[in-house]
Design brief:
Rossmann fold; 13 helices; globular
Length: 313
């Protein structure tokens, strides 16, 4: 059984690749929910939605987020009425948020609400929120503390990041599927998808029982670098690395994760850095990590799993 930790578009792509090569009983995708927030009275779960849409084949490949064939009548009317329109909600997307909110208000946990949604979308693999308890990413800037979505979407990541906090993490518990996965005797490996380490992977590990289980794991944990050729494929990871004084390369990813991982998959264009990565104490494997097609995703998933199986704890 494989446990994958994911958040964002890159995480969703590799999660989809893993779902293509692993049976539903052999994969659990643990998704960051510290990006979740309330907006217009609705519970929005951006990372859960990105993974669900990708695995259901509904994702918009041009925008990189949301559903394809989306319409925007709600947003157009909201803007006309002077509503809070800085966070785009497509009409199809809006239905997901509405049903999720209704399920939560009826007493379901986020795990239960998510399961109801992804099953309705025809997904057989388990997609689990990192926790049913609320955790919120807060960005420390020179202008003060900013809720993640206000920094990420409303301000377009412009204020430099001085630090990141995960409010509520200290008292959060793993969701039942993740707690069960971490305790399974047949857990073979843990895969950190090519997600932003600071705001997609770190929030998951900030849940104390998850962080403890990852640190005490008896199976290999392998990450796929979200940095290719000195840049992030999407999102603010590169800027956040530079602001922390880390090399914007797989070397910086290896240095940041350190002994928390056993191996790092890096892209072909960074193959000259393999020895530098391994000098950080992390085994490295070179592959084509830029996922443009479903076939790219499945191939990378297979190669990542094969690499993990060469490692031991």
């Amino acid at each position: 059984m494989i446990l994958a930790l994911a958040g964002g578009v890159g995480g969703a792509k590799l999660a989809h690749g893993l779902a293509r090569v692993l049976d539903p009983s052999d994969l659990i995708v643990a998704v960051n929910t510290a990006d979740d927030f309330r907006h217009l009275g609705l519970h929005i779960s951006p990372d859960l939605d990105s993974v669900m849409y990708k695995l259901a084949g509904l994702n918009d490949t041009e925008r990189g987020w949301g559903q394809r064939d989306e319409s925007w009548q709600f947003m157009e009317t909201l803007t006309r009425l002077g509503g809070e329109d800085w966070f785009n909600l497509g009409d199809r997307d809006l239905a997901i948020h509405t049903v999720r909110t209704q399920r939560l208000q009826s007493g379901e946990s986020l795990t239960e609400a998510t399961a109801g949604l992804y099953r309705s979308l025809g997904i057989d693999h388990v997609i689990a929120p990192m926790s049913d308890d609320p955790v919120s990413t807060v960005i420390e800037t020179d202008d003060g503390l900013l809720p993640f979505q206000h920094w990420f979407v409303r301000l377009r990541c412009e204020p430099p990041v001085r630090g990141v906090q995960f409010e509520g993490a200290v008292s959060a518990r793993p969701s039942p599927p993740i707690a069960a996965a971490l305790a399974r005797d047949d857990l073979e490996a843990i895969v950190l998808c090519p997600s932003n380490p600071f705001v997609s992977i770190d929030p998951i590990a900030a849940v104390p029982a998850i962080g403890k289980a990852l640190a005490e794991r008896k199976v290999p944990m392998v990450a796929v670098s979200p940095i290719i050729g000195g840049a992030a494929v999407k999102g603010p990871a590169a800027d956040m690395m530079a602001q922390r004084g880390l090399p914007v390369s797989p070397v910086g990813i290896a240095r940041y994760y350190g002994e928390r991982i056993d191996g790092l998959v890096i892209d072909d264009v960074d193959s000259s850095l393999l020895a530098d990565v391994e000098r950080e104490g992390v085994k490295a494997f070179v592959s084509a990590t830029l996922m443009k097609t479903d076939e790219d995703e499945a191939r990378l998933a297979e190669e990542t799993l094969a690499f993990a199986r060469t490692l031991s704890r």
